[in-house]
Automatic annotation (TrEMBL):
SUPFAM superfamilies, per the entry: Concanavalin A-like lectins/glucanases (SSF49899), EGF/Laminin (SSF57196), Fibrinogen C-terminal domain-like (SSF56496), Galactose-binding domain-like (SSF49785)
Descriptive protein name: Contactin associated protein family member 3B
Topology of this chain in the membrane: Single-pass type I membrane protein
Signal is among the record's keywords: yes
EGF-like domain boundaries: 547-584
Biased composition (Low complexity): 33-59
Length: 1207
């Protein structure tokens, strides 16, 4: 008999807000024409070629000329394939193939683009994803739509990984359309003034759109002012775009002027950035690239008092004497529009509305500097020095986020010593080492790890050495020191201890960008380094600065301060009231009820009514009586005394403010079971209403700003006090004692208990004007008791029990906590799936709880193991959190386990199906269920992951398989996975009931066959099997106890997975005899919790949430459980009843027909049975699934990539 199951459940959802979209965003509907196929061969170039027939000109998609594609001379990560589109085009998609009919293909690559073939920019998806997954064979096409698209003339494909059994091989195509570009160039001393049409009525809204490319980090982009000092200004300051708006009460902005809004970072990278400003009265929408901010300007209007002139590139206001000292813009503006007017076109035609000052031209010069990116701590750049000179002179510029790192090392000739230039604590330090002398040290600069470009000049002569950082100069005198310049300088790091160079990097290598390197009086050309004609290097990206701002947008929640290094970011949560990697988890209880259950006495406590939601904690008094009362005091007067006033004038309108904000109060009141507020009212002498209409003389205003005339527990809008409802007012003509107008003192003690209106924010009292009327009242604090989330329970008795909740999107942060108790050994607590992403918490073994998820980087797991079983029928507490920094899991008081996220992986968890549990199915004799992964050789658009088992033609080097079963039949086929390449995996029970596993990963070899004589597993009992393969190593675990490891010899790659079959297999071509016999026999009994990677075939068949991939033949029906003790081959009467709401199907299924779900609403489901029989108590704060959405722009149909073996 099943035990009684109780659960406490609460789901708090913070759904993403709707965002304002810029006008004209998105691609033209027909912007998908092939751009590369018609180009001549001369438009293609590359780093090298294996032979003339492997040249870049043969790299067009689906072409077979030459050797059938581009292949470089050497296959390494420094090779590239480049296309010149002839002019700037809008690029919306790319596609790749391998070399025709060869073993040469690229499995992942970078995509870079440029306007002029220099200063390349790397295309990034989802802010942090760098690479694209490529091909898994030579001829299939992998197509990716770019979200967002970009504009460029030149594109580069940089292979990252390729077929280990072949070489790099690529054929490519680029899709897009023509791009209109109107450009105006400002040299830092020029400006353009546009005079608007002077119409009688101002426009309803002002819209300014443009793109800019900045050559320097500071400068005015646009400025518009009015008659009274009001103005708007858009200015680039240290690579960030600052929008000033002044209503006219302040002077023009200065360095200390308050900033209205700052967006963007590193915008001085000499690449294009888009800006959109929309002003609608006082509403301002400000967008930089894809980051949008909305705000309300102060004052009556933000644009009505502005002049009819707007200047671009600087301040140009003829006839005005006002001084403005800010720097003009140096760079280019593109497609400059004001309310739909093309300002650049007017300027090019010298229209009278345009006034130009200085050197304004209509072409954008290309950058001349060549930056170098040091990608890792192992990176270095070795350059020849001026050997034999009696001085050392080196200059360069750098930018980085790291506080420490090696910048430059040089060894002097003839044993005269060495020097090292490095960063430490954000300061530049120089050390000169000479034999027999103590090191000479120089320090200059501070805060140099701010991501900005900093100039460094280092020189040393016989009498002194000096370092100049920006404008900070440090000099160290030297006494009779021999300086003899060395022959090699090491930038960013060292070659290695075995190189014999003597170079050392005690603080680690430099990660960041360098440019404008000079040694002596010679400028260094990094392109020569890239071509192998100068120096040597490792882990560099030449002609590109790959620095990114990991704090834009900031993932730190609740006001946590974001700081970063080259690889990662961190959040300082001090003083926020929150903790965790992203300041997500509240330090405080949600209510006084929670404090009471912790055994805390009465006193002042902080509570956080919405937990890890956006509302902060606030201070309350917890009165611990039989109930825990939350006391929230107001800041109003203790008592208000009222005296007569002229007729028709209010005697008193008193407002009451609280220590908590409106949102915090609303959350606390909604969380409570009951709230009330007490009002003590005394009145005397001649207070009476107009007897003709009975208008009330007093009312109160609640938190929703609605006026209420009901008092003390009466029904809303009844205009009665409690005595009116009870019929015992001192004057039966009136419904409140204090409205009776008696010539004596009377009182009402009122309890306001309509909690949806509490707390009271204002009380208004009026009088008819009798001069001696008098009254006083006292409003007490807001009192709340109970916690609705604390003990709301639900019972789950069977596997088909579940609860539906609205679909949620825990894209960036999701945390779950709950209590559970059970006597079974395994099962799923909760699960939610997306197209490929998922999140799951399960009891994997009696002593093991696992939190697993996939956001596109491949499945990740965090596991907590206990020395004692969890299935002891006692309550256990689970808390799991996943955020952009990683995942954590804690069970009871066991040590917390954590799994960090990859530095540049996917960050968004995209879920679109039900939150659900495992399901069990009964297979009758001869029945089968086939799960189809994907059609062979179909075009793949935006495939999600290199390691996804759902992608056709994916080469799997690892998979995890789990299943539970109960049967008495032998031989039996438990699971069969087929491949388009005649490779397969079979899991069978042999005639003696032993478990056998066969892998055939090479169709030219015999399969690897392994027998696991753990016991006779066809005994009618429930058994669990887990198979985990990592390349050639296979770990098999049975019933969470018996384990065995085996090694494959037939191969390590499972190619082109086709389908997974449960039950009878009609065709098993190429399988071994034992597998064919088991396939013919099929399976009779119960299967449960079947998983192959992320695929759940039973769930897909019996409760589909989208187009079905499953074909069922014969009698397959859902079961309540696969518990041991029931006989195998159970008749239909033992099957579970139909699933609630018609969502499931039982009984026979038409042969060959995919199962169809009758209810496919997007919803979230909490299940109460984990695999067989599990009872969950979802948290004192219950199942708290917290979604804290911080980035507003959501990307659709965006492909994802992962590092193949990285979590």
């Amino acid at each position: 008999m099943a035990s009684v199951a109780w659960a406490v459940l609460k789901v708090l959802l913070l759904l993403p807000t709707q965002t304002w979209s810029p006008v004209g965003a998105g691609n033209p509907p027909d912007c998908d024409s092939p751009l590369a196929s018609a180009l001549p061969r001369s438009s293609f170039s590359s780093s090298s070629e294996l032979s003339s027939s492997h040249g870049p000109g043969f790299s067009r998609l689906n072409r077979r000329d030459g050797a059938g594609g581009w292949t470089p001379l050497v296959s390494n990560k420094y090779q590239w394939l480049q296309i010149d589109l002839g002019e700037r085009m809008e690029v919306t998609a790319v596609a790749t193939q391998g070399g025709y009919g060869s073993s040469d293909w690229v499995t992942s690559y970078l995509l870079m683009f440029s306007d002029g073939g220099r200063n390349w920019k790397q295309y990034r998806r989802e802010e942090s994803i760098w690479g694209f997954p490529g091909n898994t064979n030579a001829d299939s096409v992998v197509h990716y739509r770019l979200q967002p698209p970009f504009e460029a003339r030149f594109l580069r494909f940089l292979p990252l990984a390729w077929n280990p059994r072949g070489r790099i091989g690529m054929r490519i195509e680029v899709y897009g359309c023509a791009y209109k570009s109107e450009v105006v160039y400002f040299d830092g001393q020029s400006a353009l003034l546009y005079t608007l049409d002077k119409k009688p009525l101002k426009p309803i809204r002002d819209v300014i759109s443009l793109k800019f490319k900045a050559m320097q980090s500071n400068g005015i982009l646009l400025h518009r002012e009015g008659q009274h000092g009001n103005h708007i200004t858009l200015e680039l300051i240290k690579g960030k775009l600052v929008f000033f708006l002044n209503s006219g009460n302040a002077k023009l902005p200065s360095t200390i002027a308050p900033v209205t809004l700052t967006l963007g970072s590193l915008l001085d990278d000499q690449h294009w950035h888009s800006v959109l400003i929309e002003l609608l009265d006082t509403q301002v929408n400000f967008t930089v690239d894809k980051h949008t901010h909305h705000f309300q300007a102060k004052g009556d209007s933000s644009n009505l008092d502005l002049n009819f002139e707007i200047s671009f590139g600087g301040i140009l206001s003829p006839g005005r004497s006002r001084a403005f000292t800010r720097k003009s813009f140096h760079g280019c503006l593109e497609n400059l529009y004001y309310n739909g007017v093309d300002v650049t076109e007017l300027a090019k035609k010298h229209k009278p509305q345009i006034l130009m000052m200085g050197n304004v031209s209509f072409s954008c010069p290309q950058p001349q500097t060549v930056p170098v990116t040091f990608l890792s701590s192992r990176s270095y750049l070795a350059l020849p020095g001026n050997s034999g000179e009696d001085k050392v002179s080196v200059t360069f510029q750098f930018r980085t986020w790291n506080r420490a790192g090696h910048l430059l090392f040089g060894e002097l000739q003839r044993g005269s010593g060495s020097f090292v230039l490095f960063l430490k604590d954000g300061k530049l330090k120089l050390s000169l080492f000479q034999a027999g002398q103590s090191p000479r040290n120089v320090t200059a600069g501070a805060g140099l790890n701010d991501g900005q470009w900093h100039s460094v000049s280092f020189s040393a002569k016989w009498s002194h050495m000096n370092v100049v950082v920006d404008d900070d100069t440090a000099v160290q005198p030297l006494v009779a020191v021999l300086i003899d310049s060395g022959d090699t300088y090491y930038f960013g790091g060292c070659l290695g201890n075995s190189s014999g160079s003597g170079c050392k990097s005690p603080l680690g290598g430099f990660q960041g960008c360098l440019r404008l390197i000079t040694i002596g009086d010679k400028a260094v050309d990094p392109i020569l380094v890239q071509q192998g004609a100068l120096g040597s290097f490792r882990d560099l990206q030449i002609d590109s600065c790959g620095i990114t701002d990991r704090c834009l947008p900031s993932y730190c929640e609740h006001g946590g301060e974001c700081s970063q290094s080259w690889d990662t970011f961190s959040c300082d949560c001090l003083g926020t009231g929150y903790t965790g990697e992203t300041c997500h988890s509240s330090l405080y209880e949600q209510s006084c009820e929670a404090h009471k259950h912790r055994g805390n006495p009465s006193g002042l406590y902080y509570i956080d009514a919405d937990g890890s939601g956006p509302l902060g904690p606030f201070l309350v008094y917890c009165n611990m009586t039989d109930s825990a009362w939350t006391v929230v005091r107001h800041g109003g007067p203790d008592a208000v005394t009222l005296r007569g006033a002229p007729s028709g004038h209010p005697l008193s309108a008193v407002s009451f403010a609280y220590a908590a904000g409106a949102g915090q109060l609303r959350a606390a009141v909604n969380l409570a079971e009951r709230c009330e507020q007490r009002l003590a009212l005394r009145c005397g002498t001649a207070r009476r209403p107009d007897s003709r209409d009975g208008t009330p003389l007093s009312w109160w205003v609640g938190r929703t700003n609605e006026t209420h005339t009901s008092w003390g527990g009466s029904l809303p809008d009844a205009q009665k006090c409690t005595c009116g409802l009870e019929g015992n007012c001192i004057d039966s003509q009136y419904y409140c004692n204090c409205d009776a107008g008696q010539n004596e003192w009377t009182s009402d003690t009122i309890v306001l208990s309509q909690k949806e209106h509490l707390p009271v924010t204002q009380i208004v009292m009026t009088d008819t004007g009798q001069p001696h009327s008098e009254a006083d009242y006292t409003l007490g604090p807001l009192l709340c008791r109970g916690d609705k989330s604390f003990w709301n329970s639900a019972s789950f008795n069977t596997e088909t029990s579940y609860l539906h909740f609205p679909a949620f999107h825990g894209e960036l942060t999701a945390d779950v906590c709950f209590f559970f108790k059970t006597t079974v050994s395994s099962g799923v607590f909760m699960e939610n799936l997306g197209i490929t992403d998922f999140i799951r918490i399960e009891l994997r073994a009696p002593t093991e709880v696992t939190f697993s998820f996939d956001v596109g980087n491949g499945p990740c797991e965090v596991t907590v193991q206990s020395p004692t079983p969890f299935n002891d029928n006692q309550w256990h507490h689970v808390r799991a959190e996943r955020n952009v920094k990683g995942a954590s899991l804690q069970v009871d008081q066991l040590p917390q386990k954590m799994q960090p996220a990859p530095a540049d992986g996917h960050v968004r968890l995209q879920l679109n199906s039900q939150l659900f549990i495992e399901i069990s199915a009964y297979f009758a004799t001869g029945s089968s269920m086939t799960y189809h992964f994907q059609e062979h050789y179909t075009l793949s658009e935006n495939s999600s992951s290199l390691v996804s088992s759902l992608h056709r033609d994916v080469t799997l080097t690892r998979e995890m398989i789990t299943l539970s079963f109960r049967t008495t039949r032998t031989p039996s086929l438990l699971l069969y996975v087929s491949s388009f390449y005649e490779e397969y995996l079979s899991v069978i029970l042999a005639n003696n009931g032993s478990l056998q596993i066969r892998y055939k990963l090479d169709r030219h070899q015999n399969p690897d066959a392994f027998t696991f004589d753990f016991k006779n597993m066809a005994d009618g009992q429930l058994h669990q099997v887990k198979i985990n393969r990592e390349e050639a190593v296979v770990m098999v675990e049975v019933n969470q106890s018996a384990k065995k490891q085996v090694i494959l010899s037939s191969g390590t790659e499972f190619n082109a997975v086709k389908s997974l079959i449960l039950g009878k297999v009609l065709e098993a071509a190429g399988a071994d005899p034992d597998t064919r016999r088991a396939a013919t026999s099929g399976f009779t009994g119960c299967l449960s919790a079947v998983r192959f990677g992320c695929a759940a075939p039973l769930k897909a068949a019996l409760r589909p949430s989208g187009p079905s991939r499953v074909t069922v033949r014969g009698h397959v029906a859902p079961m309540a459980r696969c518990a041991a003790g029931a006989a195998s081959g159970s008749p239909a009467r033992e099957l579970a009843p139909r699933l609630a709401g018609g969502a499931g199907r039982s009984g026979p299924v038409d042969e060959g027909e995919p199962l169809v779900n009758a209810d496919r609403r997007d919803s979230a489901v909490i299940g109460g049975v984990i695999a067989v029989e599990i009872f969950i108590l979802l948290c004192i704060t219950a199942i708290a699934i917290r979604i804290y959405q911080q980035r507003k722009l959501r990307k659709e149909n965006e492909s994802k990539v992962s590092k193949k073996e990285e979590c």
